[in-house]
């Protein structure tokens, strides 16, 4: 039997209320929080550990316990996010139709071209080191997150920042090769491949 509990229902069951936010505002707040690092452990504590450390098992008990332990954390995090929201408001006023077109061209044309060329350069370099052939994935393989093959080994090529973005992590059945673009070129982390 599979049972599904929707997020709203989960909040109502555990907390007793559902906070409502106007459309798009949480996306902006999430972006501001990411950029400002407002809810990082150094600001609000290591929450996954704290929730287990808390002797209270109710929401009100947790809330009171946490606020007594970190009385300034919510305000400190809110201030960081507020500064970034103001930065985003300022940035939004600078966006016009011409900028939007430039951004879309950059994403669709330049970044796609460079990204695919990175992939080819990386596949070719590793294949040369391993003395094997390489090929790009076909459409079906690509839909599974595979960018290419070195010999028979499926490869997914990701920027080094992918390691830190857990919210974006996919379940890819391939060896992951990471790259970092530096001023002098590419640094490739192919540790998942055996030499």
Give a brief description.
The protein is of the alpha+beta class and 195 residues long.
Core attributes:
52% helix, alpha+beta
- How many distinct beta strands? 5
Order of helices and strands: HHHHHHHEHEEEE
Mean pLDDT: 89
Number of domains: 2
Shape: extended
The portion of residues assigned to helices is 40-55%
- Provide the β-strand percentage band: 5-15%
Q: What order do the strands of the largest sheet run in, or round the barrel if closed?
A: 1-2-3-4-5
**Rg calculated over all Cα atoms:** 23 Å
Number of helices: 8
Largest beta sheet, briefly?
5 strands, mixed
The poorly predicted ranges are none
Which structural class should the secondary elements be placed in? alpha+beta
How far apart are the termini?
A: 45 Å
- Multimeric state: single chain
Question: What does this protein structure show overall?
Answer:
There is one protein chain. This protein has eight helices and five strands. It has helices at residues 7-14, 25-36, 41-44, 47-53, 59-69, 73-93, 97-130, 139-142, and strands at residues 134-136, 148-150, 153-159, 175-182, 185-189. α2 (25-36) packs across α6. Strands 1-2-3-4-5 form a five-stranded mixed sheet, covered by helices on one side.
Could you outline the blueprint of secondary structure elements for this entry?
Blueprint: H1 7-14, H2 25-36, H3 41-44, H4 47-53, H5 59-69, H6 73-93, H7 97-130, E1 134-136, H8 139-142, E2 148-150, E3 153-159, E4 175-182, E5 185-189
Parallel strand pairs: 3-4
Antiparallel strand pairs: 1-2, 2-3, 4-5
Helix pairs in contact: 2-6
């Amino acid at each position: 039997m599979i049972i599904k509990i929707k997020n709203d229902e989960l909040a109502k069951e555990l907390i007793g209320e559902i906070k409502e936010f106007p459309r798009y505002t949480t996306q902006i707040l999430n972006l501001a929080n990411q950029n400002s690092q407002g809810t990082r452990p150094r600001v609000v504590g290591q929450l996954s550990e704290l929730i287990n450390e808390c002797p209270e098992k109710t929401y009100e008990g947790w809330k009171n316990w946490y606020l007594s332990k970190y009385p300034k954390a919510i305000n400190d995090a809110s201030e960081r996010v507020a500064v970034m929201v103001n930065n985003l408001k300022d940035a939004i006023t600078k966006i016009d139709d011409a900028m939007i077109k430039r951004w879309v061209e950059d994403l669709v044309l330049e970044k796609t071209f460079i990204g695919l060329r990175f992939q080819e350069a990386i596949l070719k370099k590793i294949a040369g080191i391993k003395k094997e052939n390489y090929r790009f994935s076909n459409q079906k393989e690509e839909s599974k997150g595979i960018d290419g093959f070195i010999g028979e080994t499926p490869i997914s090529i990701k920027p080094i920042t992918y390691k830190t973005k857990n919210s974006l992590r996919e379940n890819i059945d391939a060896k992951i090769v990471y790259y970092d673009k530096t001023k002098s070129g590419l640094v490739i982390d192919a540790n998942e491949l055996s030499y």
